[in-house]
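Protein: LmbE family N-acetylglucosaminyl deacetylase
Species: Arthrobacter ginsengisoli
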Amino acid sequence: MNTVAAQAQSPFDPDRHRIERVLCFAAHPDDIDFGAAGAIAAWTAAGVQVSYCIMTDGDAGGFDPGQRDEIVRLRNEEQRRAAALVGVTDIHYLHERDGYLEPSHGVIRDVVRLIRQLRPDVVLSMHPERDWSRLQKSHPDHLAVGEAVTRAVYPALENPFAYPELAAAGLEAYKLPWLWLFAGPAERDNHFVDVTEHVEGKLAAIHVHVSQHPDIEAMDRTVRGLMHWTAERGGFPAGRSAEAFHVVTVNGPGTIAGF
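Structure follows.
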């Protein structure tokens, strides 16, 4: 995976830091495909195990009133097919209501539970900060995902006395190395991944979500343009495509233990 750090130096060095397992959190089916499917395809191609957790069922999505009774099933199937195109088959749902997601203790506990079960090297999540330059990135459910996951990874995940019922069930506290955030303000981006070789796979995954994006031509044009712009911001050569992340060290060599 070709990467480059932004001016705000990324703490992640792909030449030194090995990734074997990634757990991705998003609000709705299709969020991950827009934000990170290129990087995910690169990971799975390199043998990394990637899992998804979709927090809502996407029940408020779509445009056709006639699909209301089947929209959850439809979007679930779309996400399954899209994930498979980038090498992901392990998908979890929290079944929260679309448009009503909050970083409640119930949601945070569910996030902690899943992270402790899978014990990934990287948790990938939507960003908790609003992007005022493109508000569509900052759906309230997206922000709620970012806040819930950030609260979960520190301190609850590594605190053996947080949600003691989890430890009692055999899910021991876990210190996560890395938190990668996407869909946040551009000024927060500090890590860029060259996904040029995976652009078509990313777009194919997005195309699966036909219930949400009927104008495929406009969607393709917009996504390609954004990836070229992101590559330019990241300092890659002209014509490349990239995805951007805000990478945060949760537990590294310089981390001081304590809650």
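Remarks: The longest helix spans residues 216-234.
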